[in-house]
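Hi, here's the filled form for the chain we discussed.

Project: internal
Contact: R.S.
Residues: 554
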Amino acid sequence: MNTPQRASDIKLMAGIGGQARALSDAEEMLLFDDLVNKRLGAIRTPEQFGCVADFTGTPGTSTDNAAKMAIAIQTAAAEGAMLIFRGRYYCSSLPPFTNLDIDWHAAGDSALVFPSGSNGPSISQDDYNHITRIDSLMLFTLGQESGVGLSVTYAPSDSYNNRHLPRCWIRSPVVRGHDILSHGWTKGIVLKDIHNARILSPDVTGRRNTSVTGKASFGNMAIGIEYTSTTGLSSIPSDVLIDAANVANAQDAINFNGDIEGPTVRGSKLVGVWRGINDQQESLRPGGQYIDNHINFFDYGVNAYQRPQPQIEGNLFYKIEHSTAGSTSIKLDFCDLAQVGKNIHINSATDWNVAGDFIGVEVSNSVDTMVAVQTMTRATHGVRLTNGTNRARAASALMSGALYTNGPAPIAAENLTANPNAIDGRVAEGTNATGVTVASTLTTIKTVSAPVVYKGEHYLVTGSFEANKGGTAGNVVSVMAKTAGTSTVVFGTNATQAKATISNLAAGTSGTVNFSSEITVTGTGTLDISLQALSAGSDSTIAANNAQVTLRRL
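And the returned structure, exactly as it came back:
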């Protein structure tokens, strides 16, 4: 195998005026590039265009490569060449690059360094025929929150018309201030109107302002990674993959906004951020997978709006002390058909007076949400279903016994909406709000409704009441039956209802009925189940809230 060697290793000499001499470093580098080019194809380096990688960390003492770096980038793209960076290059600015084949690779700790007030590289492409590939390059700023580290934009029509063709790969970039206590970008990486983009192993860090304490010290960078679209529906970029990202010290670690579909964030560490994944859509846009991430947050771990069909699973959510009161690991609003499973929620705060409520999962205005197997430490609310949520099912919110000083008693799961939802399997439940007089014919005491039950499902219906007998003794017969709805069900083996009886209840005394029955759904549809009773001999009365019906999915 022929392996390229540096000129110094093979002791190449140059003859000038008939006398041999050793190659200069510059000549040696050019010759090395030529050797590599012959083996690997077109390769360029900034040095070939006069750039000098001499940035040592002190602004104003380095070569300004702005003009020559622009020429190097444009020439390499025109030649279809890979541009390899070997060192740290200071550039006072770079022009926007438009419709170029960008293929940048960095060796070692190579970087482009920019002063305060200057953006990093800005790339605009017309369509997928112009690829954007950036590998292992570091982008430093010497200012405080001064612009965007890297921005890549494609034409909206490219994303819309050529949806499944890859065009943009960004691998292992480092985007931060040269000194993260003194410098930082406003936004790290911004992608716009790009379908099928890949951001692999990025490291994005904002400036940490230690002159202030708590949450504020982490929030100088507005967004670590942003994926967005043109306003309106002319683009709808989809299927971005953000894999193994490290983002720290930001208001939003990862922000999805506009109208985008199917983003994936997996295996990432989002640390010291106000919001981990902030997913706010202009209209209902489906998809989204947030899997196996570690999110260390103040306000929200995942905050999704108008994102139907998200999958949020296998994450570790870690609420930082001094967080916002009411901080929430997962907040879903208008996110129908969400699947939330097997997440761990840890509250690092120990004093409720300092950090306030900690909510595991909150679901609003969403239909058919499934929440299962949430394990929580020092949560004040495990799962909350509220604001119009309908047909949600929440089960197995496991609350740790860890002490949260001065905090309220934790609530594992609660349904705060009038719509039927299943909490730990409960689909519908209720009590009689007012007193009921039970006569000698069947009288309805309480009805509960399920918005939909599906063929083949099994439910347990339970009922109870306390009856006060009138002036004449007699039986009190209770019946549980389907009274309305489009579904079909059977009670027990093949019955149309379930019954229980208090035999010969004495006059002026009270008796209690408790009974249950399993229901099998034989036809999908809506379901109303009613607890009914009749009283022989004389009427009986049931006081307000003394009867209860519960329908639970098995």
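Let me know if anything looks off before we file it.
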